[in-house]
Design a protein that fits this description.
alpha/beta, four-stranded mixed sheet, globular, seven-stranded mixed sheet, 448 residues, binds pyridoxal-5'-phosphate
Length: 448
Amino acid sequence: MSKNLMELDKKHFIHPTSSIQQQQKNGPSYIFEKGDGIYLTDVEGNTYIDAMASLWNVNIGHGRKELAEVAKEQMEKLAFSSTFSTFSHEPAILAAEKIASIAPEGLNAVFFTSGGSESNDTAFKLARHYWKLKGKENRRKIISRKKAYHGVAAASTSATGIPQFWDMAGTFMPDFVHADTPYEKSTSEAIESIKKVIEEEGPETIAAFIAEPVQGAGGVIIPPEDYFKEVRKLCDEYGILFIADEIITGFGRTGKMFGLENWGVTPDLMTFAKGVTSGYLPFGGVVVSDEIHDLMKERSTGTLFHGFTYSGHPTACAVALKNIEIIEEENLVENSREMGSRLLRGFQKIKDNSHIVGDVRTIGLLGAVELVKDPETNERFPDEWNAAGKAIQALYDEGVICRSVTYDGTDIICFSPPITMNAEEVDSLVEKVGNAVKTVEKELNITL
Ligand SMILES: Cc1ncc(COP(=O)(O)O)c(C=O)c1O
């Protein structure tokens, strides 16, 4: 059975963000068939901790029957109908109302999409539309940051600040500029870099600045404490819209409902996806400030020619509503915060007992362990030592699935497990990570 699936996979399935040659040589690395809580089981019957919540998105964990039931009910009643041309339905109306109620203060109107990339492309277009309505069509440029990941649609690929994502087909847009990431930088250095880009490009040409509250795919980069307050100030100073990409950081991931709340900062537009349905159905959207919405209400005459077939998909909306209800009723935001602190204490113990662990960090249940050749000086391992690759393999042998980030010579192991994780599960994950680190030390011949 699984052999047959392997062959069919190789023959017919072009995988996203994968090495095609590796697939052709080895077949798919896993073929999963079941999910339950924080665990995934493959067709061979092996069970793993899904320490990435798959793609940072299965926030409430696998196998939640409540979501399946709600989806079934909604599909039987009204699986799909359009929201174009002002057609509407109850699930979309209620999902918009619910998301507005949990979004930051002053962001109350929602445009729905089917995922993160569409959400960011939509946010860029809404930002430009805002300036157009204000008679400032020159404000077209989008500033993002190095190491940012904003998706792979045309505009979001261009906003993404990881050059590997431009290799496939280049970028599609001029008008996208990248400032420095705050990774291993002080607030003033990182802010200065954004300011420099604004000045070089000309403030009157900038529509918006976009940032993930915590850079995810770039390596779980938690900014310095006062960074986002300064970003907000800078955007206000130059009259630039601030878009928060909360696609990973939303819905409890960082120990707050939305990531920017950690620093008491409110964006002008906020994009979301992933955790809004915990991945049970593809869904996403953009929430905009009252100021943007009011301007649109006043001046956006004629049709807004922007919409996806699945904008406000009724079944996805119903699942989102149930998912958010579960997050609230089970206090999962608080759980994420508490379990995140526990995970950090565990990581710190691993660091204390190791010669290859550099920085460890968590914010809610989003975290990273960096492997370095010398924790004192932060000297990195040479690429050919493949430290991160060895760690991922060792974790896999321990029954843990997670992900490494090796851009710019880093060896960062990322963690983003379901936010339902309990203390026992956190401790079990920590134990396995500790074992994996020891294995890597042995393989690299670095032992006490
Ligand atoms: C921060 C961020 N923005 C945008 C996206 C793109 O979302 P999607 O893959 O749903 O298009 C992702 C996906 O990982 C993401 O992490």
